[in-house]
Automatic annotation (TrEMBL), chain A:
GO cellular component: cytoplasm; nucleus; proteasome core complex, alpha-subunit complex
Location in the cell: Cytoplasm; Nucleus
Alphabetized UniProt keyword annotations: Cytoplasm, Nucleus, Proteasome
Subunit note: The 26S proteasome consists of a 20S proteasome core and two 19S regulatory subunits.
The protein, known as: Proteasome subunit alpha type
Species of provenance: Cyanidium caldarium
Family that this chain belongs to: Belongs to the peptidase T1A family.
Function noted in UniProt: The proteasome is a multicatalytic proteinase complex which is characterized by its ability to cleave peptides with Arg, Phe, Tyr, Leu, and Glu adjacent to the leaving group at neutral or slightly basic pH. The proteasome has an ATP-dependent proteolytic activity.
Pfam family, one: Proteasome_A_N
Domain Proteasome alpha-type subunits: 8-30
Origin superkingdom: Eukaryota
UniProtKB/TrEMBL annotation, chain B:
Stated name of the protein: Proteasome subunit beta
Compartment annotation: Cytoplasm; Nucleus
Keyword Protease: no
GO biological process, one term: proteolysis involved in protein catabolic process
Function: Non-catalytic component of the proteasome.
Main subcellular localisation: cytoplasm
UniProt GO cellular component terms: cytoplasm; nucleus; proteasome core complex, beta-subunit complex
Alphabetical keyword list: Cytoplasm, Nucleus, Proteasome
Assigned protein family: Belongs to the peptidase T1B family.
Coiled-coil segments: none
TrEMBL record, chain C:
Primary localization class, coarse: cytoplasm
Protein name: Proteasome subunit beta
Assembly mode: Component of the proteasome complex.
InterPro entries linked: Ntn_hydrolases_N, Proteasome_bsu_CS, Proteasome_sua/b, Proteasome_suB-type
A GO biological process held by the record: proteolysis involved in protein catabolic process
Keyword annotations from UniProtKB, A to Z: Cytoplasm, Nucleus, Proteasome
Domain of life: Eukaryota
Keyword Signal: no
Entry keyword annotation includes Cytoplasm: yes
The species this protein was found in: Cyanidium caldarium
Family, as annotated: Belongs to the peptidase T1B family.
Localization in the cell: Cytoplasm; Nucleus
Length: 243, 215, 262
């Protein structure tokens, strides 16, 4: 009982006297410790990237994805616990599907973000569940406003962003993201820069090998960038090989 | 509450298999009983890249089927593995859906025709009966057009010829079926390459002067 | 064909004869979904059943069995397709043919294949003929109060003795083991001929001791072909082509013969 939370950290149902819910802070910690997740809104698309740290060098490249397609115009990048993220993505997919069935058009990004956040929030209210140990970075092409980016945190909060970073390298990445006017960038340029930002945030000595997973959501829908051409990457892409 | 009789209905759908692909055709009318209620509706839909669906019978049920297929295609898209159901698989899926609904005594009141890449042409009815055939015609077309299509069909037939044949049958249906219209839509589904669904267009050069000589 | 079975008596009165509240005014029924020649003939109440006609035959000799069916698929006076198979192979030694409603047949065959696969995975061998016969009965009876409108004949050879047997069924699963059976729209035409020719009943020229089935596979094949050719002459729901499966210890062989297409 004499741990960090002094008994207030066992459940999300009780606040500490300082007004904190420790379980939510621990959930956030899970995101902070895992691979960096980045999202930026550029002129003609949203670029989502994840530093997908390989659990073992035997792992086949391209498996265990962290960026998932939710609908024709939405992708979600997951920072933190992958399995928790997949569950949240499954919920996002059914929300998107349901919205199409009811209104006959694509779900607006704001509505989807709100619904996913509301769902995540439910997991911070009851003793018999634990919060999601992940952040859902939602990149979407909205019919009205174009490229948009939202992020849903474990506590169920949601904000709209121009650029977003979380995970291991968040401090370095946020500093670098701050230097660029992303809204003026074209997608190809933004992709290259985001890849570079993630790569430079890494500790070459300590960090385990990774794959850079990148997805671009633009007017044509969700596009997975499997490999950069030499021109696109500027030779900056590193990480696991392709097979 | 079940659909016990169709209310707003589409009439015949015709299809013919050619060496280089499949041609599908139907008119663009949705009738309210004997009233030609909605005259520019699309009864051919293309939710996937590899196939099109043409449907007759209750129009709202047809839209429900189209929604089901769109959902199926969106789920495939989210899978991101590039794997999509082949036309034959979609055909079997539709058969199971229709059979389940009829077994719940809540049928989807449609005759469906599926045309797909790889020269696929299949029918599913409201009972869940599914079969593939060189020529298909549903609704009144099964009485008026099917014999014409069967007579015209040859194994070496090309799509231009098939389209002309389907158009001819649509014309015959317009002359004789009081629930048919001269505004029609054709879908050309080549064995390889992009599917082409035409905009609704009018059958030209209709000749009614012979009408007085016909019973 | 009129109403298929009298199963409507099992079913709750789901549909009233009153016009549908959304019915268009003064509407004349139109054969858009289910065509019939005379629109007035359309049943006031929708039926989940349809009779798609067709004739199926199974007969068995000392070391063979034959299962045969035509390929016509009819809906009242129309023939939507001339190539609709009624036969499915269940194992190396068992073949099933079903007349009746096309959709129910496809469902039944799919169901049986699933159960056969499960049996194979559990037992590491194929189902025997009597086992398949019993399973078919159970499958049909499982829908006792919403019958599968299929009239089945099952044929095969006993895996132990190699002797051929066939089974005949009604729609809800009651069955019997036989040497010759016919079902479907041509039953009344074909069954009596097979009784006389194949079972040897009333053939007074044949000594009592030889009344048991004694036809060779070739003779039986010819008999079945003639039976179908005859049925096709008078039954409008039978025709187009004959599919015949011959089952012997050597395996199954499928042959196809053309029938009248009018």
């Amino acid at each position: 009982m004499a741990g960090v939370g002094s008994g207030y950290d066992l459940s999300t149902t009780t606040f500490s006297p300082e007004g904190r819910v420790f379980q939510l802070e621990y959930a956030n910690k899970a995101v902070e410790l895992s691979g960096t997740v980045v999202g930026v809104v550029c002129r003609d698309a949203v670029v989502l990237a994840v530093e997908n740290v390989l659990p073992h060098r035997f792992v086949v490249s391209g498996t265990l994805r962290r960026v998932h397609t939710v609908d024709r115009h939405v992708a979600i990048a997951v920072g933190g616990m992958g399995p928790d993220g997949r569950h949240l993505v499954a919920r996002a997919r059914s929300e998107a599907e349901n919205y199409r069935a009811v209104y006959g058009e694509a779900i607006p990004a704001r509505v989807l973000a709100d619904r996913v956040a509301g769902y995540a929030h439910l997991y911070s209210l009851y003793w018999h569940v634990r919060p999601f140990g992940c952040t859902a970075v939602i990149g979407a092409w909205d019919a009205v406003v174009g490229a948009v980016l939202y992020a849903v945190e474990p506590d169920g909060s949601v904000y709209k962003y121009r650029a977003y970073a979380h995970g291991k390298g968040r401090t370095a990445v946020r500093t670098e993201l701050d230097k660029v006017r992303w809204a003026e960038r074209e997608r190809a340029e933004a992709m290259r820069e985001v890849a570079g930002v993630v790569e430079r945030s890494r500790d070459v000595v300590k960090d385990k090998p990774y794959e850079l997973e990148m997805v671009v959501v633009g007017e044509r829908g969700v596009e997975r960038i499997d490999r950069f051409t030499a021109a696109e990457s500027g030779g900056e892409r590193s990480g696991g090989g392709d097979d | 509450m079940h659909t016990t009789e169709p209310i707003v209905t589409g009439a015949s759908v015709l299809g013919i298999q050619c060496v280089d692909g499949v041609v599908l055709g139907c008119d663009t009318l949705a009738s309210y009983g004997s009233l030609a209620r909605f005259q520019r509706v699309r009864r051919i839909v293309q939710p996937g890249a590899d196939w099109v669906l043409g449907g007759g019978g209750e129009y709202s049920d047809l839209q429900e089927v189209a929604r089901l297929l769109e959902t199926m295609v969106t789920r495939e898209y989210c899978q991101e593995d590039g794997v999509v159901r082949a036309p034959r698989a979609v055909h079997r899926y539709l058969a199971r859906v229709m059979y389940q609904r009829r077994s719940r005594l809540d049928p989807l009141f449609n005759s469906l025709v599926l045309a797909g890449r790889g020269r696929f042409l299949g029918v599913v009815d409201m009972y869940g009966t599914a079969f593939e055939s060189h020529v298909v015609a549903t609704g009144f077309g099964s009485l008026l057009a099917l014999p014409l299509l069967r007579k015209a069909w040859r194994p070496d037939m090309r799509m231009e010829e098939g389209a002309a044949c389907v158009e001819h049958c649509l014309r015959v249906l317009f002359y004789r079926d009081c629930r048919a219209l001269s505004s029609v839509q054709l879908a050309r589904v080549p064995a390889e390459g992009a599917i082409e669904v035409s905009e609704p267009y009018e059958l030209g050069e209709l000749q009614w002067h012979v009408a007085q000589t016909v019973a | 064909m009129d109403r298929p079975l009298s199963h409507s008596s099992f079913l709750p009165p789901l549909f009233s004869s009153a016009p549908h509240p959304l019915s268009p005014p003064h509407s004349v029924p139109h054969p858009s979904a289910a065509p019939s020649v005379n629109a007035a003939e359309r049943p006031a109440r929708w039926s989940p059943y349809q009779d798609n006609g067709g004739t199926v035959v199974a007969l068995a000799g000392r070391d063979y069995a034959i299962v045969a069916a035509d390929t016509r698929f009819s809906v009242s006076f129309s023939i939507p397709t001339r190539e609709f198979t009624k036969i499915t192979q269940l194992t190396d030694r068992v073949v099933l043919a079903s007349a009746g409603m096309g959709a129910d047949r496809q469902y039944l065959h799919k169901m049986l294949h699933t159960r056969l696969a499960m049996y194979r995975h559990q037992h590491q061998r194929d189902m025997s003929l009597p086992a398949a016969a019993q399973m078919l009965s159970n499958t049909l009876y499982s829908r006792r109060f919403f019958p599968i409108y299929a009239f089945n004949v099952l044929g095969g050879i006993d895996s132990a003795t190699g002797e051929g047997f066939v089974y005949g069924y009604d729609a809800i699963g009651s069955h019997e083991q036989l040497k010759v059976v016919c079902s479907g729209s041509g039953q009344a035409i074909v069954q009596p001929v097979l009784d006389q020719q194949f079972s040897g009943r009333q053939r007074y020229s044949v000594p009592d001791a030889e009344r048991a089935p004694s036809l060779t596979l070739e003779q039986a094949t010819a008999l079945v072909r003639d039976a179908f050719a005859s049925a096709t002459e008078r039954d409008i729901h039978t025709g187009d082509a004959l599919e015949m499966w011959q089952i012997t210890a050597a395996g199954v062989r499928q042959t196809r013969y053309e029938l009248r297409k009018d």
